[in-house]
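Thread amino acids onto this structure.
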């Protein structure tokens, strides 16, 4: 059974930083593209950043230059370093991954971690 678990959220002042982690557990052969998404109250879930198995990255315009996505394949973990945080970054952040196990290739979501940017 594969699980994605996010951590690292919290309350931070505008201009501050947080690092989110998304750790995959289970019998995993490989993890393909991993994405971070966020959903603010009353809004649709939106894509924040992605990273491929080869390390290619994509960022939404709203976070470009402030957020950095990275991965540690040995630990099956993807990170989202968030700097210069703004109140509009407040949301529940979710990770999403295509995971290869012994028997399947499936897409998984984590449970989310709350990020609140406020003074």
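Threaded sequence (119 positions):
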């Amino acid at each position: 059974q594969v699980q994605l678990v996010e951590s690292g959220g919290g309350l931070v002042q505008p201009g501050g930083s947080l690092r989110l982690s998304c750790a995959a557990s289970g019998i995993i052969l490989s993890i393909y593209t991993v994405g971070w998404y966020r959903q603010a109250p009353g809004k649709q879930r939106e894509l924040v950043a992605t990273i491929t198995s080869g390390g290619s990255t994509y960022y939404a315009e709203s976070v470009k230059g402030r957020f950095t996505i990275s991965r540690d394949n040995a630990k099956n973990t993807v990170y989202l370093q968030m700097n210069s945080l703004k109140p509009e970054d407040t949301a529940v952040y979710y990770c999403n991954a295509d995971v290869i196990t012994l028997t399947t290739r499936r897409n998984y979501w984590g449970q989310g971690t709350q990020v609140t940017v406020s003074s």
